[in-house]
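User: Please run a holo structure prediction.
Assistant: Happy to. Please share the sequence and the ligand.
User: Here you go; the ligand is magnesium ion.
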Amino acid sequence: MQEIITLKHGEGAKASYNLVKEVFLKKLSSPALKKLTDAATIGNLVYSCDSFTVDPIFFPGSDIGKLSVFGTVNDISVSGGIPKYLSLAVIVEEGFLKSDLIKIVASIKAAIRAAKVDIVSGDFKVVERGKADKIFISTSGIGEKIKKANPSFKSIKNKDKIIVTGSVGEHGISVMLARKKIFEFNIKSDCQSLNSLVTSLWMKFPQINFMRDPTRGGIASVLNEIHLGSKKGIRISEENIPVRRDVRAACEILGIDPYYLACEGRAILVVPDKISEEVLKFLKKTSKSASIIGEIDKGAKGVVLNTVSGGERILDFSHSFNLPRIC
Ligand code: MG
């Protein structure tokens, strides 16, 4: 039987990771691409692209327009660049409301202002009714490399601390609740530009070894990517993972693990032990929920979660969730 692509391949977890390696990297590998970082560093440029198919296109706290700017901006920021210029490609399904398009473009305008970037190239296409779902947006972005910042999997060392810049899961759960039309919760997406925060982090703490934004697949997937990329074990303390109570409650109702939910305005940092408290103090000035959630532990096999109840479990790449079109 012919193998087909399923929604699972788009979740950003193990199936996505394997497909990218097997289909794309095998044929298209370049020195920058095979590093599998959020953005490519080429000389003094940091370059990234992303596509957005989120469903619904408007959800509490944000929409596809903002998301398409911040998604690319944040990938450049966590990779050690200062985002400067974006391209914007929009594909719309015939029958889409012009007023919604105007609303989305206004949202894009607010987002580029917040992220301090300009859109310098664009494309607009319309496809027949039923040949796409409402609107899809792709952006790519160029940033200027911060000289002192050199994040890489190879720099990660045993005992490095793992820090998350804020509470996790709000973006993913806000989209899920909007999709399922459950309005008892008032949870807004955490979608925001990381440009200012992350640039000041790189300037002040260039010793930070690695950074990634936990978007699709949530913190569980990013921690697994860090484990695979660095070939080092990770131990996480569940009680230190910041998850809002309402997010946890909504997750219980929907049967979702918050650690697999996408964030769109958070970063995970891998930081040398000796500067970790100082980095945390810096983050706490703007984000009270920033937290040291664990460390690189050469004794750990994979990503090990020390649970609140005192046990431990492996926090694997998501296998069983079905959260398509979350960004
Ligand atoms: Mg990313």
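The longest strand covers residues 81-93.
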